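Is this the right way to post structure tokens for a design question? Let me know if I should format differently. Anyway, here goes:
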């Protein structure tokens, strides 16, 4: 994998870790690697072994396809724009609340037409 791919994978792993309210130390312990290695992975300076990637998928209940390529296999999520998926995967409660409110307003408008 090239440096840009490693950075994208690292960002997705960091986002998943934060969304699951997990520290780098917690993830490192679960994967039996050092905290420093997790930090390097999340910054795109290193990569996880295949076994560690598979375990990461198990921990975060996601697919390798998502971690490696950023593609959700959930048929509903795959229809949503990337920006909405990014908000749903984030731990930013303000953005999530705003998205929920937008969807409520859309639903009200749609049902009143």
């Amino acid at each position: 994998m090239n440096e840009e791919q490693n950075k994208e994978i690292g960002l997705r792993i960091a986002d998943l870790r934060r969304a699951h309210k997990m520290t780098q130390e917690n993830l490192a312990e679960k994967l039996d690697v050092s905290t420093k290695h997790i930090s390097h992975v999340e910054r795109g300076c290193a990569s996880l072994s295949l076994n560690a990637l598979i375990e990461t998928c198990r921990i975060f209940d996601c697919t390798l396809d998502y971690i490696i390529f950023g593609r959700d296999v959930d048929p509903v999520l795959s229809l949503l724009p990337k920006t909405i998926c990014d908000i749903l995967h984030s731990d930013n409660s303000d953005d999530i609340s705003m998205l929920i409110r937008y969807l409520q307003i859309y639903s009200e408008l749609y049902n009143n037409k």
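Format looks fine. Someone answered above. Worth noting: The CA atoms of residues 8 and 18 lie 15 Å apart. The mean pLDDT is 90.
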